[in-house]
Amino acid sequence: MNELEALGYEMRDALNEEMKAVLLSNGRTPDLYYGMMHYHMGWRDRDLGLADVNAGKQIRPVLLLLVCQAAGGDWQKAVPAAAAVELLHNFSLIHDDIEDASPTRRGRETLWQLWGIEQAINAGDAMFALAHLALNRLYDRGVPAERVVRALRRFDETCVRLTQGQHADMDFEKRDRVTVDEYIAMITGKTAVLLSLCAELGALVAGQDDTTIAHYAQYGLDAGLAFQVIDDILGIWGDETLIGKSASTDITTKKKTLPVLYGLEHSADLRQLYTQEETDSAFVQQAVTLLNQTGARDFATTKATAYTQSALGNLEAAHPSGPAYTALNQLTDMLLKRDY
User: Fold this and answer.
1) Range of 63's domain?
2) Which three-class secondary structure state does DSSP give residue 4?
3) I need a surface site. Which of 172, 278, 305, 317 has the fewest CB within 10 A?
4) Nearest Cα residue to 108 out of 124, 93, 122, 118
5) What is the residue-averaged pLDDT of the chain?
């Protein structure tokens, strides 16, 4: 068992215990108000009986706790911050499912499918508020009040950025033309800022100076951008046996990813092709050929490499140490050193 597996297992146990405390999961069958949130988290089934459904990889909170330890702090003091981030992420998923009309998540019906849009919105709102209460519990772990106040401010500033990213993402779906720069701004808000907050809060709870905190925050931001761009590359050119889905899915659905947007900016033939409604295998083959001709893959790969190098450089500049640093490198490798 490597450092990431060993520390991650212990950290996830503490994280889930903290989240259950915040969401009042005390062993008794919850009422419907809390029960909907417990269902979304995978702790209950649709009848509110006990369940144990995989609730995701919990990468964000684990990264926060690893940074805290690697930055010289006690990761157990940062558990409330990790719980807050994971609850915030799950609030966004509840609302995303409504906005995207997604019928399933993690192999089960979504909240709005079972209890209606109105109740699902309210459950998401409740989880958003409870995420803030979770963050306040840092003070109960002995974190100085001034750090808690700073953490709350950065938490709320990030919430605004997340909703801006979601706004842009939904807006892009209705637009024929989106620029590469607009896309980078969107994924910064929708994906990267939350990973940045995790690294920042970990260093903040550890009591690091502003310069070190800034390096960790930039590490998280660049890692988030690199992760998304790599996903975009794999969504077109990835090995289907490795990514677990058809590598042509992003083309078939005309998803506005970085390589596609670059290709559309540089190829009139691709723009003409994308006016077609039919997206059969011939469409996919021609689209990939045109993308290759524009150098879209090379462009995206160069971007992913630059973000990855910046992330690693900022991580080194923060001078992390100990087994948590080793685990943090392993987590970074898992996120960014995929075959693209």
Assistant:
1) 1-208
2) helix
3) 278
4) 93
5) 95
Residue 191: partners with Cβ closer than 8 Å, 6 or more residues away? 165, 224, 225, 227, 228
Q: Is the backbone of residue 173 left (phi > 0), alpha (psi -120 to 50) or beta?
A: alpha
Alpha-carbon gap, residue 174 to 226, rounded angstroms: 26
Report the number of distinct structural domains present in the chain.
2
- Regarding whether 260 and 204 lie in a shared domain, the answer is no
Q: Say which residue the tokens 């842009």 belong to.
A: 168
Instruction: Based on the fold, state whether residues 199 and 278 are members of the same structural domain.
Output: no
Greatest alpha-carbon pair distance for the chain in Å reads 61
Give φ, ψ of 304 to 5 degrees.
Answer: -60, -40
Q: Does residue 328 lie in a domain region?
A: no
Q: pLDDT, tens digit, for every residue of 5-31?
A: 999 999 999 999 999 999 999 889 999
Q: What is the pLDDT of residues 91-130, one digit of tens each?
A: 999 999 999 999 999 999 999 999 999 999 999 999 999 9
Q: What is the pTM of this model?
A: 0.95
Residues 6+ apart with CB under 8 A from 192: 220, 221, 222, 223, 224, 225, 228
Place of tokens 């029960």: 35
Same domain, 306 and 264: yes
